[in-house]
Write a structure and sequence with these properties.
Chain B: It is a multi-pass membrane protein. Chain B: One of its GO terms (biological process) is L-alanine transport. The complex is a heterotrimer of chains A (329), B (290) and C (257). With 329 residues, chain A is mainly alpha-helical. In chain A, 74% of the residues lie in helices and 1% in strands. Chain B has one domain. Helix content of chain B is 73%, strand content 3%. Chain B starts with a helix and ends in a 14-residue tail after the last helix. With 257 residues, chain C is α/β, with parallel strands linked by helices. In chain C, strands 6-7-8-3-9-10 form a six-stranded mixed β-sheet, with helices on both faces. The chains are: A mainly alpha (329), B mainly alpha (290), C alpha/beta (257). Chains in contact: A-B, A-C. Chains A and B meet through helix 6, helix 12, helix 14 and helix 15 of A and helix 4, helix 7, helix 9 and helix 11 of B.
Chain lengths: 329, 290, 257
C-alpha cells in the first residue's frame, strides 16, 4: 500500500485534485470535507499521544473544546482577531495538556485511561457549569468569521484552502517530530518505558511534551471549528466526541500518519453517506471499534505487531514471579 | 441535615459498591477494565423496568430475573470480547469494550427511546423517622438487598469451591491452572457474578430515583470505577468501602459546596487517590519484577 | 576508583534483599558479580541504575554522587546497563534501537525537530554514523533494517549491548550477557567484552557462566542472600570455602567452621 505514495505521478494527481476540489465538488460535499479536515487534525493530534507515545488518552475532546472556547471567547469578548485567537487557542490547550500530563505521568494503561476520561469530563462540566464565562448549555452563538483587512472571509473557498494549509502544516510537523530525536524517544517510551529510562530518556518530560504538542494541535482544530461553525456548546465536546476521535485513530492505525488521515476521512464521510440512518451513527462507530480490535487491532495502516506493555502480564509477573523462578531453576 | 445527607450518601454509595465489586472481580481475575460494565448495569435496570411495568411482576422476582439476565449478558460479553482478545495487547479489550458500551447505549436508545422512563409506584413512598433524619422505604430496600447480595457474594467467594478457584486465579493464574482450575469457567463465573451484581444495582437505582434512561450506565460506571480504584482496584471489600465513601462524599459535597459540580467530586477523588496513594485502601502496589 | 559503592542496603518491607554491600571498581577493569539464584545480584544492578531507591548507603560514580538519582540521569552521567530478560524496543528496527542509545548524548529537542537547523542535522548525521559503526562492531550491520523482534536470541543480546554502548558509558553493567548462548557464541562474547575493556571501558558483569567469569574478570565479588561473602581474584574465589558452600550447600566444601 505504501508504494502508492511513492509514485510521484499519483501524488501529483492527488494534490491537483485537492487544489481543484472546491471547483468540482458541490457546496455540501465541500462542507463535509472541511469537517473531515478538522477531524484529520484531531486524529493526528491524538495519535501522537496515544499511538506514538503509547499514552492511552480518553478525554481528547477536552482540548478540542478548550481551543474552541478560548478562540471564541477571545473573539466575542475581546474582539480579538481570529489570526491571533487561533495560535492562542492552541497554546491554551497546550497548557491544559501540560496540566494533564504532570499528574498522570506515572500512570499506566487503565489508570491513565480513566484519569484522562475524568479530565475530559471535568472540562465538559466546567464548560457547562461556569455559565458566567461560557453561557453554559446555551452555548456561544455569533462567533465572528475570520477576516483580513476588514474583508470577511466567510466563504467555503477560504475555509477549504485554509483547512488544507493547516492539515499540511500539521502533517509536516508530525512527520518531522516522528523522524527526530524527540520522536524516537516517544516511540521508545511506547515500546518499553523502563528500557527508555535506562537509555537516558527523561520519560516524564517527553510524555508532557507529547501531551502539550498534541493538545496544541487539537486546540487549533477547536479554534477553526468555532469560527467555521459560528456556534459552539459544551455538548459538542463530550465523551462521545472523544470516542469518535479515538475510533478514527484505531481504524486508521495507531502510530501512522497516513492511517490517521484515512481514519478521519472515512469516519467523517461514512456517516454523511449514511445520513438517512443517522440514528445508527454512534452504533456504527462502536461496532467499527469492536470490529477493528477483534479482526485487525493494528487498524488499516498501523504497524503489524503493535505490542504494548500489558498490565495483565505485569500483574502476573508480580504475583506469579515466584512460581516462574522456581520453575526456571 | 448532615445525618440525612449521610444516609442518602450511603444509599447511593451502596449502588456504587455493587457495581464497583464487578470491576474489582474482573480486574482481579483478568487484570483488565470492562468499559461496558456500566451498560450491563443499565441493561439490568431496563430488564427490571420491563419486568415490572410490562409483565407486572413484583420487585423481588423482577430483581432476581434481572440479576440472572445481567449475569448472562456478562458471560456473553466475555465470550464475544474478552476471550478472543486474551492474547492481544491491553488496549484491545479496552477499546473494544468502549465500542461495545457505545453500541449498547445507542441500541438501548433506539429500542426504548432516550426519554426517561418511570414505573408506577411500586415501592410505597413511606418515610420512617431515624433520629434527626428519615429513611425512605426505597433506601431500606437498597440497604437490605445490597447487604444480602454482598453476603451472598462473600459466601460464594469464601465458602465454595468456585470461590476458592476464583480467588486462586486472581492471585496467580498460572499456578491455578497448574492446580487443575478450569480458568475459562472461572473467568465466565467472575463475569457472571460481577455482571449480576451490576444488574441488581441498576434495578435498585432505577427504583430509587424512579428513572430509567439509556445513558444511566455511563456516569454510574465511571463513578463505580472510581470507587473501585479508591478501594484498591482488586479488592472486593475495598470496592464496597470505596463506594460508600464516594456516595457520602458526593452527597455532602453537593449539599454543602455546589450541586452543579456534583459529578466532579468523583473525578477529584480519583485524581487525589492516584496522586497520593494509587493502591487505594486495600490494594497492593503493582511493582513488577525487573 | 570509577565506581564506589558504600554500604548499600535495600529492604523490601521486612525482607533485606541487599545487605550492606560495598564494592570499589577500578577504571578499565572487568569485575564479575556472581552468586546463587536469588542472591540479589540484579537487585544490586537495579539500585545502581536508580530503578529502586536505596534504603541506605551511597553510590559514587567518578566522584559524583548518583545515589537515588533517576535512571535517565544515571545513564547521562555514564552508567548504562543491559537487562537479564533483554528489553529491546521490539517494534523498532535494529538500527533505531541502537540509535536510541545515543539519545542522552544528543540535545536537539522540539524546535530542532520542527525546523531542522544545521546543528540538528549535524547531530543526526553523527548519530547515524556512530550507530553504523557500533552495528559493524557487533556484526549486525547487514541486518540494520530488520525489526529487533526478528533477531535470534544471541543476536538480540548483542543488539542490547550495542544499544548500551551507544550511550557512551564510562561503566557498563551487563546482566547475564551469556545466558542462553551456546559455547561458540559465549566464546565470541567473551572476546568481545575483553576487547571493550581493551578500548578503555569499565565493565561490571553478572554471570553464571564460570568459565567466562574466571577468564576475563580481574576481580570477582560473590553475593549470597544479599550479602558479600567473598571478593578477590578469580583463583582465590574458586577455592573459597564460603563460596563453594553458597553454591553447593553446607558440607560440600568441608570447610573448617
Amino acid at each position: 500500500m505504501n508504494d502508492i505514495f511513492k509514485n510521484k505521478y499519483l501524488l501529483g494527481v492527488l494534490f491537483a485534485g485537492l487544489l481543484l476540489l472546491p471547483f468540482i465538488a458541490g457546496d455540501y460535499l465541500l462542507r463535509v470535507i472541511i469537517v473531515a479536515g478538522i477531524y484529520v487534525i484531531l486524529t493526528l493530534s491524538l495519535n501522537l499521544v496515544t499511538g506514538y507515545t503509547g499514552q492511552f488518552c480518553l478525554g481528547w475532546a477536552a482540548f478540542y473544546g478548550i481551543g474552541a472556547y478560548t478562540s471564541a471567547l477571545l473573539a466575542i469578548n475581546l474582539k480579538l482577531s481570529f489570526w491571533i485567537g487561533l495560535p492562542l487557542a492552541g497554546i491554551m490547550a497546550a497548557l491544559f495538556g501540560i496540566a494533564l500530563g504532570i499528574p498522570t505521568m506515572r500512570l499506566k494503561d487503565i489508570y491513565l485511561a480513566i484519569t484522562t476520561l475524568g479530565f475530559g469530563e471535568i472540562i465538559r462540566l466546567l464548560l457547562l457549569n461556569w455559565s458566567d464565562l461560557t453561557r453554559g448549555s446555551m452555548g456561544l452563538p455569533g462567533i465572528p468569521a475570520p477576516s483580513i483587512f476588514g474583508i470577511s472571509l466567510d466563504n467555503n473557498y477560504f475555509y477549504y484552502y485554509f483547512m488544507l494549509v493547516l492539515v499540511c502544516i500539521v502533517i509536516l510537523a508530525m512527520e518531522r517530530i516522528i523522524d527526530s530525536r524527540l520522536g524516537r524517544a516517544l516511540s521508545a517510551i511506547r515500546e518499553d518505558e523502563l528500557a527508555a529510562k535506562s537509555m537516558g530518556i527523561n520519560t516524564t518530560r517527553y510524555k508532557i511534551i507529547a501531551f502539550a504538542v498534541g493538545a496544541f494541535f487539537a486546540g487549533i482544530a477547536g479554534s477553526f471549528h468555532a469560527h467555521y461553525s459560528s456556534f459552539i456548546d459544551p455538548q459538542s465536546f463530550s465523551f462521545s466526541e472523544s470516542t469518535i476521535i479515538l475510533a478514527m485513530v484505531v481504524l486508521g492505525g495507531m502510530a501512522s500518519i497516513k492511517g490517521s488521515v484515512l481514519g478521519a476521512v472515512i469516519l467523517t464521510l461514512l456517516p454523511e453517506a449514511l445520513r438517512d440512518f443517522s440514528e445508527y451513527r454512534m452504533i456504527v462507530f462502536g461496532l467499527i471499534m469492536m470490529a477493528v480490535m477483534l479482526i485487525r487491532p493494528q487498524g488499516i495502516w498501523g504497524q503489524s505487531k503493535a505490542r504494548t506493555a500489558s498490565i495483565g502480564k505485569i500483574m502476573l509477573k508480580a504475583k506469579g514471579g515466584a512460581v516462574k523462578d522456581a520453575v526456571r531453576g | 441535615m448532615l445525618l440525612q445527607q449521610i444516609i442518602n450518601g450511603l444509599a447511593q454509595g451502596s449502588i456504587y459498591a455493587l457495581v464497583g465489586i464487578g470491576f474489582a472481580l474482573i480486574f482481579g481475575v483478568l487484570g483488565l477494565v470492562h468499559f461496558a460494565h456500566g451498560e450491563v448495569y443499565m441493561l439490568g435496570a431496563f430488564f427490571g423496568f420491563a419486568l415490572i411495568s410490562v409483565f407486572h411482576l413484583g420487585v423481588v422476582p423482577s430483581l432476581l430475573i434481572a440479576i440472572i439476565a445481567s449475569a448472562l449478558v456478562g458471560i456473553l460479553v466475555e465470550r464475544i470480547v474478552f476471550k478472543p482478545l486474551r492474547k492481544a495487547p491491553d488496549v484491545a479489550p479496552m477499546v473494544c469494550t468502549l465500542g461495545l458500551s457505545v453500541v449498547l447505549q445507542n441500541v438501548a436508545m433506539l429500542v426504548w427511546g432516550s426519554d426517561t422512563k418511570s414505573v408506577p409506584d411500586v415501592i410505597s413512598g413511606t418515610v420512617i423517622p431515624f433520629f434527626s433524619a428519615h429513611i425512605s422505604t426505597s433506601q431500606i430496600l437498597i440497604f437490605a438487598i445490597s447487604l444480602v447480595l454482598m453476603l451472598a457474594l462473600q459466601y460464594i467467594l469464601y465458602r465454595s469451591k468456585l470461590g476458592r478457584a476464583i480467588r486462586a486465579t486472581a492471585q496467580n493464574k498460572e499456578a491455578a491452572a497448574l492446580m487443575g482450575v478450569n480458568i475459562n469457567k472461572v473467568i465466565s463465573a467472575t463475569f457472571a457474578l460481577g455482571s449480576g451484581l451490576g444488574g441488581a444495582a441498576g434495578v435498585l437505582v432505577g427504583l430509587y430515583y424512579n428513572a430509567f434512561y439509556p445513558t444511566m450506565g455511563f456516569m454510574a460506571g465511571l463513578k463505580a470505577f472510581v470507587a473501585t480504584v479508591l478501594g484498591g482496584l482488586t479488592s472486593v471489600p475495598g470496592a464496597v468501602l470505596g463506594g460508600l465513601v464516594l456516595g457520602v462524599a458526593e452527597n455532602l459535597g453537593a449539599a454543602y459546596i455546589s450541586s452543579g459540580y456534583r459529578d466532579l467530586i468523583a473525578f477529584v477523588i480519583l485524581i487525589l487517590v492516584l496522586l497520593i496513594k494509587p493502591s487505594g485502601f486495600f490494594g497492593r502496589s503493582l511493582q513488577g519484577k525487573v | 576508583m570509577l565506581l564506589e559503592v558504600k554500604g548499600v542496603t535495600k529492604k523490601f518491607g521486612g525482607l533485606t534483599a541487599v545487605d550492606n554491600f560495598s564494592i570499589e571498581i577500578e577504571k578499565g577493569t572487568i569485575t564479575g558479580l556472581i552468586g546463587p539464584n536469588g542472591a540479589g545480584k540484579t537487585t544490586v544492578f537495579n539500585l545502581l541504575t536508580g530503578i529502586y531507591p536505596v534504603s541506605s548507603g551511597s553510590i559514587v560514580l567518578d566522584e559524583q554522587d548518583i545515589t537515588n538519582n533517576p535512571s535517565h540521569v544515571i545513564t547521562q552521567k555514564g552508567l548504562t546497563r543491559t537487562f537479564q530478560n533483554i528489553k529491546l524496543f521490539n517494534n523498532m528496527t535494529v538500527f533505531d534501537n541502537v540509535r536510541i542509545g545515543h539519545h542522552c548524548r544528543g540535545s536537539s529537542n522540539l524546535l530542532g525537530a520542527l525546523f531542522r537547523p544545521p546543528s540538528t542535522r549535524r547531530e543526526e548525521t553523527e548519530m547515524s554514523e556512530r550507530t553504523m559503526s557500533l552495528l559493524e562492531d557487533v556484526g549486525l550491520a547487514d541486518r540494520k533494517d530488520e525489526l529487533a523482534s526478528n533477531l535470534s536470541y544471541g543476536m538480540q543480546r548483542k543488539l542490547e549491548i550495542a544499544r548500551a554502548l551507544a550511550s557512551e558509558p564510562k561503566i557498563l553493567l551487563l546482566d547475564e550477557p551469556a545466558a542462553g548462548m551456546n559455547p561458540q557464541e559465549t566464546k565470541e562474547l567473551t572476546q568481545f567484552i575483553s576487547n571493550l575493556k581493551d578500548k578503555g571501558l569499565t565493565i561490571l558483569l553478572i554471570e553464571h557462566d564460570m568459565k567466562l567469569v574466571m577468564n576475563i574478570c580481574k576481580k570477582v565479588v560473590v553475593l549470597d542472600h544479599g550479602a558479600k561473602i567473598a571478593e578477590g581474584v578469580p583463583q582465590e574465589i574458586q577455592s573459597n570455602c564460603a563460596v563453594i558452600e553458597a553454591y553447593l550447600g553446607k558440607g560440600a566444601a568441608k570447610c573448617s567452621q
